[in-house]
Specification:
The protein is mostly helical. About 65% of the residues lie in helices and about 0% in strands.
């Protein structure tokens, strides 16, 4: 099974956006309001997943502060996390639960280079086998660290709320329903995700919130 199309440049995002706009008038209207969509690529590897764990269920400011301490202490590699141990990770601001997740990730021995060549399904399966990494984190990693063009993260509340507004739904779609809806945006589901994330910021701005 091949990896499929990758999103590596702004032109890839633009191509996907044009395809979505031509396919669905509601998406075309949302794109007109959202403007050019961001590339949102980030480096892959251990640090990217560790960063995602740090950011779980805390404010952006808190996550940024903790990550800065981890970077300053050079604790963003598997060996460094091992060496820091529970005490070092706790001193950086990680909770007991996240310390367990960080150590599990450090011990998982994931071959990040091999993931670049693995099919989407295998990427998700490999990552979710690690304690503390759920489907949402794995899908976000596949989209933005690996550049997979046909991955979506329907468990994300921002994506659910954007879908509610874009399609004028009576209520926010649940994960299962949004995953089914997203099938219609294949093979550019990751561009649809970029649209929804961007559109969510637009509608939150209308409400006078960040």
């Amino acid at each position: 099974m091949s990896v499929g199309r990758l999103i590596e440049t702004d032109s890839d995002v633009s191509e996907g956006a044009a395809w979505l706009a031509a396919r669905d008038p509601a998406l075309a209207r949302a794109l007109a309001q959202a403007g050019p969509l961001p590339l949102r690529r980030r480096p892959d590897g251990f640090a990217a997943l560790f960063h995602a764990i740090v950011g779980q269920q805390v404010s952006t400011a808190s996550a940024s502060a903790i990550w800065s301490r981890l970077e300053a202490g050079r604790m963003i590699t598997p060996n460094a996390v091992h060496a820091a141990g529970e005490d070092g990770l706790r001193a950086a601001g990680l909770s007991r639960q996240k310390i367990a997740y960080a150590l599990a990730l450090a011990e998982a021995g994931i071959d990040f280079h091999a993931l670049r060549r693995a099919p989407d399904r295998d990427v998700i399966a490999t990552l979710t086998a690690v304690k503390g990494i759920g489907v949402w984190t794995a899908e976000i990693y596949a989209m933005f660290a690996l550049g997979r063009a046909d991955v979506f993260a329907p468990g994300d509340l921002a994506l659910q709320e954007a879908a509610r507004v874009i399609f004028d739904l009576g209520e926010r779609p649940k994960e299962k329903a949004l995953r089914a809806m997203a099938l219609g945006w294949s093979p550019w589901r990751a561009v649809a995700a970029r649209l929804f994330f961007t559109y969510y910021r637009v509608i939150k701005g209308r409400e006078g919130t960040r």
